[in-house]
Write a structure and sequence with these properties.
The complex is a heterodimer.
Chain A (H helix, E strand, L loop, with lengths): L4 H24 L8 H24 E2 L2 E2 L6 H16 L2 H18 L1
Antiparallel strand pairs in A: 1-2
Helix pairs in contact in A: 3-4
Chain B lengths: L4 H31 L4 H11 L2 H12 L4 H11 L2 H13 L4 H9 L3 H13 L6 H26 L12 H10 L6 H16 L7 H21 L1
Helix pairs in contact in B: 1-3, 1-8, 2-8, 3-4, 5-7, 7-8, 10-11
Classes of the chains: A mainly alpha, B mainly alpha.
């Protein structure tokens, strides 16, 4: 499995420019321009929606099919990680706890 | 523009504690890119040009799956849309700074740098040394991240699969998103996004992710409206 190198460089350039534009957007905008209320509200919701949509399939699907039973060790380990993330608000503790839980459930189930 | 030394050092100190979080995430990102078939040089280039962990993990997944370049770029930009929010939030603090500093601040803007700096600025209103503090935090975050990704890239696929390190990527996203869910609108956005992405799993080109983001944001907005 090896991605095509020229495609990678093209994607890298576009992702780099696009990401920089997102970061610079309001930092470079003239001072007289103001944010509309709805736009600011929507922006506030972006991380919760996008980040959740990234991790949810890794817990809820197994080989592309919903797996909501207790024999899904990634669902159980993910639930443990969610509890730890909620309690400690710490990236490292969450990753370590989630990996430990996955190994534990893998052994039990 | 003089960069005040004590504030710069204070930023470096805070950033030192962050290294504990940056290194595992950076290593995992490097390993994921190597596992996705991205050669070390290209992986390091992505890390320097894009400098955003979540987006890099998503890009690695998509490039490994031979997704079209346009899809890779669009998806990572959706993932990075939150940076617009950070940009808007930091704006009051950069007013009056020369363009070159604002460009540098923009390039270095990532989740943990934003979180640390915004907390510090809110705590000490009107005090100077903001730029120095930012550069202290962001400089070391940048360096630690690049080194960690490079190390992960070279360690690459040599790490055994039964360590299940692939699960570290979703765990990192859980760690970034769960603490945000502090009110009903945020919870609705996350819940609706999760349900949508599962229902839309059959859609081609990972469009389910974009659809889930839109559905989640819409659900959150509806709740905010109702409360207002």
């Amino acid at each position: 499995m090896s991605a095509d190198t020229s495609a990678i460089w093209l994607a890298t350039a576009a992702m780099g420019l696009g990401t920089f534009a997102l970061r610079a957007s309001f930092l470079l905008l003239p001072e007289r321009i103001r944010l509309s209320g709805t736009f600011a509200q929507a922006l506030r919701l972006v991380p919760a929606a996008v980040l959740t949509a990234i991790w949810a399939p890794e817990l809820l699907l197994r080989e592309g099919v919903p797996a909501l039973a207790l024999d899904n060790e990634r669902l159980l380990a993910g639930a443990a990680a969610i509890a730890v993330a909620w309690r400690f608000r710490d990236t490292l503790i969450t990753i370590v706890a989630g990996l430990a839980a996955l190994h534990l459930f893998d052994r039990i189930l | 523009m003089p960069v005040e030394r004590p504030e710069f050092l204070a930023g470096l100190r805070e950033s030192l504690a962050l290294q504990l979080a940056i290194w595992p995430f950076g290593l995992v990102t490097g390993v994921a890119m190597a596992a996705g078939g991205i050669p070390p040089l290209e992986a390091i280039a992505i890390s320097v040009f894009v400098f955003a962990g979540a987006a890099m993990l998503v890009a690695a997944q998509l490039l490994a799956a031979d997704a079209p370049v346009a899809v890779v770029v669009l998806t990572t930009l959706v993932v990075n849309l939150r940076l617009v929010m950070y940009s808007a939030s930091l704006r009051p603090y950069v007013i009056g700074l020369p363009l070159r500093w604002r460009l540098l601040i923009s390039y270095l803007l990532v989740d943990n740098v934003y979180a640390l700096c915004v907390a510090r600025y809110a705590e000490r209103p009107g005090s100077g040394g903001r730029l120095a503090y930012y550069l202290g935090v962001a400089g070391l975050v940048w360096l630690g991240w690049q080194l960690a990704v490079a190390a992960g890239t070279f360690a690459g696929a040599r790490l055994p699969a039964d360590w299940k390190l692939d699960f570290a990527a979703p765990l990192a996203f859980i760690a970034l998103s769960v603490p945000l869910l502090r009110d009903r609108a945020m919870l609705a956005a996350a819940g609706c996004a999760a349900v949508t992405v599962v229902l839309a799993r059959g859609l081609p080109l990972r469009l389910g992710l974009v659809l889930a983001a839109v559905a989640g944001i819409a659900a959150g907005l509806v709740l905010e409206r109702r409360r207002a």
